[in-house]
């Protein structure tokens, strides 16, 4: 400690977890350890949650993957060389493609991948593999809000305004967003606002709310329609705004007219008076925001639900008004950028469409290939996983930055599909539950070992910077893609391994697209510029766009569209055999499938095992005691967890976090019913029963 | 491809047609509606009365791919030829659905069929309510909702009902008394225990001889299932058109839904039941899902913002000695609850002014779920009490959720010399997440300072 601090390596980067992308400063090195301090960055302003503080521990994970692994004849994963691993993968991919066609090979990406990785992964799939079969775990995260946002505004940027604007709010409606647990540092921007929280659970966020509306699981859309109904009938519509800036108001309201307060009360359990109070709080605020999260989006009617909340915001005249707005709270670290640059089944970089001839021509031009050589749209995430190894489905799958064995719905079935593949390749930095089932495991770099960019929930492009050199035999995802592409006959220069070079290609591919990055460069970002997309290079120093929609929406006529949506209800209802609802979600100490956070001792100590939150009455009825083991069973399967009595739960609803592996996987019971527009599964509602389990005797 | 013909252009027929298309019924669907207006939300006519919405705003969404005729009353049904006759046109069918709704009862009062009198069933009826003063006859839900809506638009409104209070039969003395007060607060004059004996120009005559000035007399005196066509066609009719669990009448090619139908021995009225039957019938006709229609337990809920009122179950349940009862009355606050229970399940309930309980009890009753053990919280609502595990051991209480810092962690850091919030934050990371615990940590810090002091022997 005698060295002056300036001699110790130090970088400014961002937390590896959620889309808030809190600013952090890292110091230290492999030998002396890594120290992390929160930075005075606008979204976190010197604050961090426990995951952020302990993020360096993942860098030192005891079971870090440090060499490629190949499944040998005896069925074990055994260390090998990169050349052998990549030759094996490329060889088998070539065989499968020759025998079954290009769609026999599929790719599954992730919302945690940097923009550069997501971009190159999409290009690799379409050009090197020639497959249409690529999608990613963001389908399980942001797809419903993205579909609704695109339809309403002509563009999908989670928050079309900087997070710091929320500090001006008088009222914020949080629909299905448990911010206090999932992105705690965001709460400081909501300190002055009165909160309306819509959540079946009395979450830490709901505890901070002025008004908590606690609807039955699966009924959020009816509630949103009811709020629009009251807005219109009570004369609180911003009629001038609606006339000047929107389309579709009448048709949307015609649907909402069927949702009078007492009917909404009957369907949702939210008192009619509380609905009226919520609308009044929004309408009377000078600055009001409507924000949605996964709670209302992860349903088979998730897109329509997000759209119904957008309708409400539009009726109140909020989006693009400068005194409020609508936003969705993106979940994964690069959940925003990851959905813009071509790892989605139907999409090309720059939020371009795989079915639009002009979009195809532009990207094909940047890639130097004829447009007709690009495949068309493929299956979305769940149908893709469901089809693996079947007669018409892919025979090989490459997974980057995802752990579907834990995170996909109907997880036991997905694991079966993975097992039926001829070839499963997983690139990861820890032996995730999916990696353990792979035929080939490729060890890759993690956050503090790599350079790149991520796009945060407010559409701001941020630099991820490397403090450490990666372990000796670990490669970057870009190097892996390069190695495979070259082996599959692609020109080496088409797959750069320097992140800045990939970003420059991404800029060109996104030029003129919905998410235009062409004016953003590493140089500008490293100079400290604050750049939100769209940031075209039509002028040398375009300032980016912190606030969208102030003048116009992104549809050709400049107007936003209200959607004509109606409540259909969930895919599954409770019954005598499955009398309870189960809903899944996150806890503060863990992130996504838990592959990273379960390896951090402090986080593991905070939440070591799966649990089942249940109302004491409900637990007593089935004879389940606090802290005892119990089983939750749906028509798909069962998970096991420990009972956690919680008198704030609705008696008809269980909550189970989805971060845990093995028998503790919440996704063993979830329903693969999909939203018809977004492909989002119904994570937030399953009909289940609860049964106590005898303690295993030692 | 079977041709489905729906007689009745109201919400039940509309919903059925919408659901048939939703479930992919491939054949033609035709609606014959008697009213000249396009279909609208009948339950929301009080919005028109109060001036909150225009009649046009209540219109139901258009039904693409459905042939809908309005102003087309059906004259008779020829079951043998499977044809329905309107004036001049004959419509064939494979499946006929009667959704003819109900007709308002008009009491036998001199002048009741003359000018300045209207029943309240249709949008056209609403337009007939004119003038500065209106007498509403009938203490049922429609009478109460109508009177409240008229008072809200500034009309001098008198509600005349036969019972001691409006809705007395359903709510009992206590809650219906509170309802009278709420109506009076909203500007309605309530004349209970009275009835109208005659309509004269510009006024109505009551049974006690009083003459009330009234530009309009609004009759909210009940309705009966419209069974005329069905009866003429020889279908089985009791109070309503009798249907089985597949919502079939005595002719298997003819179904009936909504206010005109009698299912499980009851002619259930109301939009919820009508829509539920339409949903079931659409599934039955398209071969989807459950084949039998089951009525859901009905919840009566007044649709007005002058008072929160609901009840479920039969009123005579409160006289059943085999049931346990729970009563809560807050006369000054205008809050009242009466529950009749069998085991953990609700048999009947009357609720007034208890908004959270109304929502919860409605949910519990509709889904036949057991009541929560904390009955007072069920009635009063309010924020749920948080989990109690932390209170068992105050040292283990989590003060900073974001960083999982327990009270004992803070105490340990304090003992180790962290005597200010910033020092405690550095030592434990408390307050560095959402910042929500800042006040609590500041208070703890101050209290330990005060109680123990710098050199204290005692430990926090």
Overall description:
The complex is a heterodimer of chains A (698) and B (460). With 698 residues, chain A is of the alpha/beta class. Chain A folds into four domains: 5-59, ADC-like domains (N-terminal domain of TfIIb); 69-140 and 334-497, Rossmann fold (3-Layer(aba) Sandwich); 143-329, Dimethylsulfoxide Reductase, domain 2, CATH 3.40.228.10; 580-692, Beta Barrel (Barwin-like endoglucanases), CATH 2.40.40.20. Chain A has 23 helices and 29 strands. Chain A has a seven-stranded mixed sheet with strand order 5-4-18-17-16-6-7, covered by helices on one side. Chain A has a six-stranded mixed sheet with strand order 23-25-24-29-22-26. A five-stranded parallel sheet of chain A has the order 10-9-8-12-13. The longest helix of chain A has 19 residues, at 82-100. In chain A, 63% of the residues are buried. Chain B is an alpha/beta fold and 460 residues long. Chain B folds into four domains: 4-103 and 224-286, FAD/NAD(P)-binding domain (3-Layer(bba) Sandwich); 117-221, 3-Layer(bba) Sandwich (FAD/NAD(P)-binding domain), CATH 3.50.50; 308-380, FAD/NAD-linked reductase, C-terminal dimerisation domain (Enolase-like, domain 1); 389-452, Orthogonal Bundle (Arc Repressor Mutant, subunit A), CATH 1.10.10. In chain B, 28% of the residues lie in helices and 24% in strands. Chain B contains 13 helices and 27 strands. In chain B, the strands form eight sheets. Chain B has a five-stranded parallel sheet, covered by helices on one side. In chain B, helix 4 (141-152) links the parallel strand 10 and strand 11 (156-161). Chain B is globular, with a radius of gyration of 30 Å. The model of chain B is unreliable at 388-392 (pLDDT under 50). The chains are: A alpha/beta (698), B alpha/beta (460). At the A-B interface, helix 10, helix 11, helix 12 and helix 23 of A face helix 8 of B.
């Amino acid at each position: 400690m005698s060295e002056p601090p300036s001699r110790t390596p130090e970088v400014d980067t961002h937390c590896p977890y959620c889309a808030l992308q809190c600013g952090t400063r890292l110091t230290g090195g492999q030998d002396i350890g890594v120290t992390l301090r929160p930075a005075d960055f606008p979204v976190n302003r010197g604050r961090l949650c426990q995951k952020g503080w302990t993020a360096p521990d993942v860098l030192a994970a005891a079971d870090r993957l440090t060499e490629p692994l190949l499944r040998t004849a005896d069925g074990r994963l055994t260390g090998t060389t990169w050349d052998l691993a990549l030759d094996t993968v490329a060889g088998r991919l070539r065989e499968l493609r020759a025998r079954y066609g290009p769609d026999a090979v599929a790719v599954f990406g992730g919302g945690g991948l940097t923009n550069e990785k997501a971009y190159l992964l999409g290009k690799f799939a379409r050009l090197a593999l020639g497959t249409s079969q690529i999608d990613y775990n963001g389908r399980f995260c942001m797809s419903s809000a993205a579909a609704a946002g695109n339809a309403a505004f002509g563009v999908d940027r989670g928050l079309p305004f900087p997070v710091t604007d929320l500090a001006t709010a008088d009222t914020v409606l949080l629909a299905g967003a448990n911010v206090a647990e999932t992105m705690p540092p965001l709460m400081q921007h909501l300190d002055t606002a009165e909160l309306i929280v819509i959540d079946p659970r009395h979450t830490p966020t709901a505890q901070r709310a002025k008004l908590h509306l606690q609807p039955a699981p699966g009924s959020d859309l009816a509630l949103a329609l009811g709020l629009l109904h009251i807005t219109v009938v009570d004369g609180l519509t911003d009629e001038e705004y609606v006339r000047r800036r929107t389309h579709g108001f009448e048709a949307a309201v015609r649907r909402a007219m069927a949702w009078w307060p007492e009917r909404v009360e009957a369907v949702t359990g939210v008192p009619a008076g509380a609905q009226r109070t919520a609308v009044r709080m929004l309408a009377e605020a000078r600055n009001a925001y409507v924000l949605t999260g996964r709670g209302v989006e992860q349903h088979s009617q998730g897109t329509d639900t997000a759209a119904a909340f957008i309708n409400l915001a539009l009726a109140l005249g909020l989006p693009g008004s400068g005194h409020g707005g609508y936003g969705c709270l993106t979940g994964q670290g690069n959940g925003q950028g990851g959905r813009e640059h071509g790892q989605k089944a139907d999409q090309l970089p720059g939020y371009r469409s795989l079915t639009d001839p002009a979009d195809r021509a532009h990207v094909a031009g940047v890639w130097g290939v004829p447009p007709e050589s690009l495949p068309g749209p493929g299956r979305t995430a769940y149908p893709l996983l469901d089809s693996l190894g079947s007669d018409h489905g892919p025979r090989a799958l490459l997974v980057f930055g995802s752990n579907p064995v834990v995170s996909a719905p109907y997880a036991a079935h997905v694991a079966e599909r993975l097992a039926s593949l001829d070839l499963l390749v997983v690139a990861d930095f820890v032996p995730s539950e999916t990696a353990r089932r792979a035929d080939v495991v490729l060890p890759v770099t993690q956050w503090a070992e790599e350079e790149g960019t991520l796009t945060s929930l407010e559409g701001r492009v941020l630099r991820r910077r490397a403090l450490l050199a990666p372990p000796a035999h670990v490669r970057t995802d870009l190097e892996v893609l390069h190695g495979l592409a070259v082996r599959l006959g692609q020109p080496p220069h088409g797959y750069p391994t320097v992140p800045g070079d990939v970003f420059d290609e991404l800029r060109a591919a996104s030029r003129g697209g919905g998410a235009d990055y062409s004016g953003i460069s590493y140089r500008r970002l490293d100079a400290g510029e604050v750049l939100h997309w769209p940031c075209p290079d039509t002028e040398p120093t375009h300032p980016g766009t912190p606030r969208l929609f102030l003048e116009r929406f992104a549809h050709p006529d400049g107007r936003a569209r209200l959607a004509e949506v109606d409540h259909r209800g969930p895919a599954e209802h409770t019954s005598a055999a499955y009398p309870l609802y189960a809903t899944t979600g996150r806890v503060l100490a863990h992130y996504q499938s838990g592959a990273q956070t379960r390896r951090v001792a402090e986080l593991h100590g905070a939440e070591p095992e799966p649990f089942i939150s249940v109302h004491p009455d409900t637990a007593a009825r089935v004879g389940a005691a606090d802290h005892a083991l119990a089983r939750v069973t749906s028509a798909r399967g069962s998970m096991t967890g420990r009972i956690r009595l919680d008198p704030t739960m609705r008696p008809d609803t269980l909550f189970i976090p989805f971060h845990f592996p093995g028998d503790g996987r919440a996704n063993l019971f979830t329903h693969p019913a999909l939203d018809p527009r977004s492909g989002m599964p119904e994570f937030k509602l399953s009909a289940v029963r609860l049964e106590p389990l005898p303690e295993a005797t030692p | 491809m079977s041709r489905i013909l729906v007689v009745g252009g109201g919400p039940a027929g509309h919903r059925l047609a919408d659901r048939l298309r939703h479930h992919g019924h491939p054949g033609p669907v035709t609606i014959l509606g008697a009213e000249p207006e396009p279909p609208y939300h009948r339950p929301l006519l009080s919005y028109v009365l109060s001036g909150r919405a225009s009649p046009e705003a209540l219109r139901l969404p258009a039904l693409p791919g459905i042939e809908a005729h309005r102003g087309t009353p059906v004259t008779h049904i020829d079951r043998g030829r499977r044809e329905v006759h309107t004036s001049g046109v004959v419509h064939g069918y494979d499946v006929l659905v009667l959704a003819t709704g109900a007709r308002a009862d008009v009491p036998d009062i001199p002048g009741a069929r003359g000018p300045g009198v209207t029943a309240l069933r249709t949008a056209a009826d609403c337009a007939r309510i004119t003038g500065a003063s209106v007498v509403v006859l009938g203490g049922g839900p429609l009478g109460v909702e109508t009177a409240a809506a008229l008072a809200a638009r500034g009309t001098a409104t008198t509600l005349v009902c036969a019972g001691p209070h409006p809705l007395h039969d359903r709510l009992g003395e206590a809650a219906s008394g509170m309802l009278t007060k709420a109506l009076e607060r909203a500007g309605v004059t309530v004349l209970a225990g009275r009835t109208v004996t005659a309509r004269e120009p510009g006024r109505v005559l009551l049974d006690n001889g009083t003459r009330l000035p009234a530009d309009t007399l609004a009759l909210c005196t009940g309705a009966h299932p419209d069974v005329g066509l069905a009866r003429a066609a020889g279908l089985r009719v009791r109070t309503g058109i009798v249907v089985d669990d597949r919502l079939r009448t005595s002719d298997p090619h003819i179904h009936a839904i909504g206010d005109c139908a009698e299912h499980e021995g009851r002619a259930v009225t109301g939009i919820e039941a009508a829509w539920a039957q339409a949903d079931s019938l659409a599934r039955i006709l398209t071969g989807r899902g459950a084949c039998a229609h089951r009525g859901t337990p009905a919840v009566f809920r007044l649709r007005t913002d002058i008072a929160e009122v609901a009840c479920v179950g039969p009123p005579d349940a409160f006289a059943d000695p085999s049931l346990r009862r729970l009563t809560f009355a807050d006369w000054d606050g205008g809050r009242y609850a009466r529950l009749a229970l069998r085991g953990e399940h609700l048999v009947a309930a009357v609720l007034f002014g208890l908004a959270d309980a109304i929502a919860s009890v409605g949910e519990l009753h509709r889904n036949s779920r057991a009541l929560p053990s904390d009955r007072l919280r069920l009635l009063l609502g309010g924020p749920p009490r948080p989990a109690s595990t932390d209170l068992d051991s105050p040292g283990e209480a989590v003060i900073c959720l974001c960083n999982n810092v327990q009270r004992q962690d803070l105490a340990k850091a304090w003992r180790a010399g962290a005597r200010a919030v910033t020092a405690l934050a550095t030592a434990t990371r408390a307050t560095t997440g959402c910042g929500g615990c800042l006040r609590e940590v500041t208070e703890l810090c101050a209290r330990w300072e005060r109680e123990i002091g710098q050199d204290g022997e005692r430990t926090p």
